[in-house]
Amino acid sequence: MKHQLSYTTVAIAGWLLSFLMPQISAQAYTFGQKEVDQSKLIAIAVPFAQAKQYNLIILEQISSTQTCWKEHPDQPGVIDPLLLKFDFTGICGRSTDSNGYSIRQAGLDLALDYRLSLVKHSDHLV
Questions:
Q1: Of 7, 61, 62, 72, which one's alpha carbon is 20 to 30 angstroms from that of 37?
Q2: Residue 5 domain-assigned?
Q3: Could you tell me which residues come within 8 angstroms of residue 43 by beta carbon, excluding any fewer than 6 positions away?
Q4: What are the strands, taking DSSP E only, across 10-87?
Q5: Would residue 27 count as lying in a domain?
Q6: Under 8 Å between Cβ of 44 and 81
């Protein structure tokens, strides 16, 4: 009886709150697109899971105040992201998932059709 009274009280309270709380509806947002200066962007494969998997991170040089990454000419393809060495707010942009980057072609967002991922194939990442 004690549990039944508690469940009834919770049910009535929930029902009353549904009338008192304002109704919240979801809004859809559209995203624009713009050409980017590709010389200010770099795609980096960041290993995890003991280098068996990789995350894609895109860095953008927003301001010339400080360099956001360093390339190693003696080690082609090796990139040193410098974000942990300074406060990169307003200097570097960092996109780590589809909220920050997507594929667009001819004005169409292809994010629902394609998922960007990095896969190791032989000794290369594709």
A1: 72
A2: no
A3: 56, 57, 58
A4: 41-48, 53-61, 69-71, 79-81
A5: no
A6: yes
Its pTM surpasses 0.70: no
Instruction: Note the pLDDT of residue 100.
Output: 74
Total structural domains in the chain?
Answer: 1
pLDDT in tens, 53-104: 888 889 999 999 999 999 988 988 889 999 889 999 999 999 887 777 777 7
Domain presence at residue 108 = yes
For residue 14, being part of any structural domain is answered with no
List the domain range (segments joined by +) for residue 90.
39-125
The single residue listed with the structure tokens 């001819």 is 106
**Cβ-based neighbour number of residue 57 at 10 Å:** 19
What average pLDDT does this structure show over 20-48?
A: 76
Amino acid identity, residue 83?
Answer: L
The strand ranges marked E within 7-105 are 41-48, 53-61, 69-71, 79-81, 92-95, 104-105
Tokens 């770099």 sit on residue: 42
* pLDDT for the residue numbered 48: 84
From residue 115, alpha-carbon distances to 33, 97, 103, 118 in Å are 18, 10, 9, 10
